[in-house]
Amino acid sequence: MRRSPLARPLTLLLGTTLVALAAAAPPAAGSDGAALPAVPPRAETPTLYDDAAGGNADADDPAIWRNTAAPDRSLVIATAKEGGLRVYDLEARPVQSIPAPPAPGPDDAPGRFNNVDLVHGLRLPSGRADLAVTTDRGHDTLRVYRIDRDRPGGPLTDVTDPAAPPVFSDGQHEINEQRTAYGLATWTDTGTGRSYALVSRRNTTTLALLELTATAHGTVGYRTVRTLDLPATFRLPNGSSWTPCAEPGELPQIEGMVVDPAGAGTLYAGQEDVGIWRLPADLSGTPHLVDKVREYGVPGRYDPETDECTPGADPGYGGTRLSADVEGLTLLTEPDGDGHLLASSQGDDTFAGYDREQADDNEYEGGFRVTAASPELDGSEECDGAAVLNAPLGRRYPHGLLVVQDGHDAPADGDRAATGFKYVDLADVTEALDD
Asked: pTM for the full model?
């Protein structure tokens, strides 16, 4: 989602129970973004245009699939909303384009692929397979694609179970309201071997845990295990209650999500106008707010004529590292169990890095910007999604890769909405975080 016109724990209302949270950490050096190191991209995908001529393609969220047999032939799989899925090689060249499904009726929404993540080694009747899973916001479903790098016609094959139900909606009338499947993270429970998708619901605070299930026909469906609602209203230190400003009827939604598979699995979920939550991946237990956006606690008034929120005075309860919306969560793992949670701070075009270790309460460890490498190869602005892989990817990225969405690809073509994805050498990112 594009940055909010408003974009701060203390205490919050979880259901009907007040939960105390720790006070915000003091500002870190460079937390205003001015001193953050700049990291240039190495490559970029062709520009996508969100208009009729461009097929209403709007870059959103990437995932990185590693070809273990031939790392040079690894892939980046990315969503383009109504433009469907795009597959790129490590040179950022197009490999495959998969259209989103059409609207079921003349008054219904077309398919709209929002977020994508990977599942490795799911057992199918024909053997184990790697899968790309995406949320189809237009139809309130998950779409599932088998990955076969050498398949004629392209590496992705649709293996979605035709009987897969809507994730949240009770029929097409609810789907048309577009409170549908939105953010996504996959997770395989190391204890049971079962694979899941964690899915958020647009314009609400609802999360759903879906188990991915293979059918006898070689397709993949899903069943709902449980749901959880994150808070929408928060108790501030002055005793007042605060809800982020939004269009009437809309609640502060979640999009960016990632699961740390260590142990029993930990979900990190970015509530766009609130901050980053940490909770068990099976949606049990009490969520903990790791960090808040700067705009946390700022009152706002919604103007229906402009469809914007006018902010009031900042009471100073917000964080210091994230500007709404918080987006694009991804996990940089290291062999020794250390690593970083990376988050896109969409409101100020930066990325924040947090210690993976929960024992250190996911302490903030630094940040960076993805800035232009040349007049032709620009950086990343208003980043919606990101994916990182700390593994050798052949000659071009021997230290790993970070892929980030760019919400304003340049040079632009007139007034056309232009987006794309940038490839960043992971060695440059880790150096920036170590500064």
From this structure: 0.92
